[in-house]
Amino acid sequence: MGEHGTTAAWEVDAGEFPADGDFAERARFLLRYATLAPSSHNSQPWAFEIGDGAVRLFADESRRLSVADPDGRELHLSLGCALENLVVAARYFGYDPAVDYGDGADDPVATVTLGREGPGPTDAATPPDAATPDPAVGDAALFDAIRRRRTNHELFDEGRPVPAAVLDRFRGYAAESDGDVTLTLVEDADRRRELAALQAEADRRQFEDPDYREELGYWVGSGALGANWLVARVGQLAVEHLDLGDREGAKNSKLLRSAPAVAVLSTATDDRESRVEAGRAFERLALAATNEGLAVHPMSQTLERPAYRAKLAELLGSSDASPQHLFRLGYGEPESGRTPRRPVDDVLR
Ligand SMILES: Cc1cc2nc3c(=O)[nH]c(=O)nc-3n(C[C@H](O)[C@H](O)[C@H](O)COP(=O)(O)O)c2cc1C
User: Fold this and answer.
1) What value does the mean pLDDT take over residues 5-15?
2) Complete edge-to-edge strand list for the sheet that includes strand 261-267
3) Is residue 225 within 6 Å of ligand 1 at its C-beta?
4) Last residue of a domain, which of 120, 149, 178?
């Protein structure tokens, strides 16, 4: 098994929840769902500690993308995704999880107190609870989507808009999230073209940087992004030795233009907790999107350089909020294959 784990992690079966096991065994089981979360370059930058009826979440700094993500924005978004999966899985198995955020560099990024234990797994066949009458976001529906969610890198069908009712539901899901996270949905063709032009420029800039290419080459070449060994080696050579900026930029801008809607999550403050909360909101939306039959694809290059990030805020008309995460939404051929995940043993402190 490589340092990024295997695709066997996706085979987790809810029927094997160790209901009669001790707290640590049950918490470990929940972490199998947390670790299926998306993360930038599939870096899986999380570490967990189990104890006292709680699970503590830390950053694994050795997995930070020091070139693409020097200030840890993507790292904390990724931690938020794992945290949201943990909360969704805990609810599904009858817990009442409460999340506290830490501030200090040595504090846990978040502590999840699992709380009382309920009657056991939510029955996936029962209608969602009254508080969330929408079938895409009931506890059981979100839980069920954890194993089906994946990033879709295909062209989307530009001629098939996301129905207004679905986008309205998306705004509703985002509004339900804690903290100061806001969702902007860009559907207008001219504005999407402007976003695509910004993406192409940011891509070109990133790929001009040999350190950026080398870092990406490491993650591609070591199989984190799920290609088989041969394809992965070829990918690494290509990324490290050619200036692919123009090609990548053209490809990514085409992908962006093919999406009938582009979503951006922003926060009023730009600190660790806000970024984790933005990550949680993203994962919740990605799970809901999975249940709505929508494909999701984050695209980060515009956010990775301060000048482009500022231009993005301007373009969105929200210069007083910090854009944290951008993703395409639409309909496309399903992504084939899965990315690997590290087993829980490897992410426990
Ligand atoms: C914060 C964050 C940023 C990401 N940025 C990109 C990106 O710029 N381009 C891309 O193709 N995928 C991006 N992704 C998707 C990851 O590459 C993907 O989640 C990871 O490879 C695992 O694959 P999966 O989502 O299919 O499970 C991002 C994901 C996260 C959480």
Assistant:
1) 96
2) 181-186, 261-267, 322-330, 295-298
3) yes
4) 149
